[in-house]
Amino acid sequence: MEFRRRQPSPQTLDWVERVAGAGVVSWRRMTGGITSAVHRLTLESGGGRDVLVLRQYEHGHLAHVDSGAAAEIRHEAATLRAVHDAGLPAPEPVASDAEGLETDGRPTILMTRLPGRPDVAPEDPDGWLRQVAATAALIHDVPLAAGPFRSRIDADAPVVPGSATRPALWEAAFRVLRQPAPEPVTRFIHRDFQHFNLLWRRGRLTGVVDWTGSCTGPADFDIGHCRLNLAVLFGADRAERLRLAYEAEAGRATDPWWDLYALTAYNDEWPRFIPVQVAGRAPVDTAGMTARVEDLLAATLARL
């Protein structure tokens, strides 16, 4: 469900001013978020201006994390510090209030703003894909320690989307996933690596955001997840071109098992929330979304 809060509370803005040492002169809701409220804040101090990004969750919203949203904020703050210091194009954390004690009860993180914005209608799709692939390989090459990868699916209880036009493809994918997982190429991964979390400026990829799920896990899952997101908007062809570009960057083939693991996350909620993320920046064909994912499933099964 899209986060409904439309503006930071006065209590939150007071906290921002204290930790940043500057006055908030304006704020603007940033588009596309579905799990948190993200605002761009303009601050002024000593005649100069700066821009920071404020991200807030509702308590209990992150139910997939055992210890809740507070643990997620602490994890995000620590991860941002690590990846920023490692030289990755990530925001730098400024302050956090994991329990929401000073921010109106909402777990909160304040960070620097990176230049650029998401680009879901690139003028040069091939150049765009090459940069996406190179950035994924860069992330996977950084020697950072992180928590373990959390399992996402139960292959013994598959859920075929109600919108499926080729249910046999889904059943075939789940049969593969019931087999033991192959030994993955384990790296530091973003875990939500996809175009909505990439920033661009003048055709150049300038930043990666939303590091809340980062962990040590299968690098191929990152690519599979990005391929799923490409398929829902653009089709299997662009997703396959990303795979080939990444394999050229990484110097190895990706494992189709992890592709299937990522692709079967798709369900009938995706046509509802993808337009929220796109936020009018490109046309969205929701009616054909499931069929495009099925095209990618078929191509991935053919690689086994």
Explain this structure.
The structure is a single chain. The protein has 304 residues and is an alpha+beta fold. It folds into two domains: 10-112, Phosphorylase Kinase, domain 1; 125-301, Aminoglycoside 3'-phosphotransferase, Chain: A, domain 2. Helices cover 38% and strands 17% of the residues. It contains nine helices and nine strands. Strands 1-2-3-5-4 form a five-stranded antiparallel β-sheet. The protein has a two-stranded antiparallel sheet with strand order 6-9. A two-stranded antiparallel ribbon has the order 7-8. The relative contact order is 0.13. The model is unreliable at 61-66 (pLDDT under 50).
Set down the secondary structure blueprint.
Blueprint: H1 10-20, E1 23-29, E2 37-45, E3 48-56, H2 68-85, E4 93-97, E5 108-112, H3 125-141, H4 167-177, E6 186-189, E7 198-201, E8 204-208, E9 215-218, H5 219-233, H6 236-250, H7 256-263, H8 270-278, H9 289-301
Antiparallel strand pairs: 1-2, 2-3, 3-5, 4-5, 6-9, 7-8
Helix pairs in contact: 3-6, 4-9, 5-6, 5-7, 5-9, 6-9, 7-9
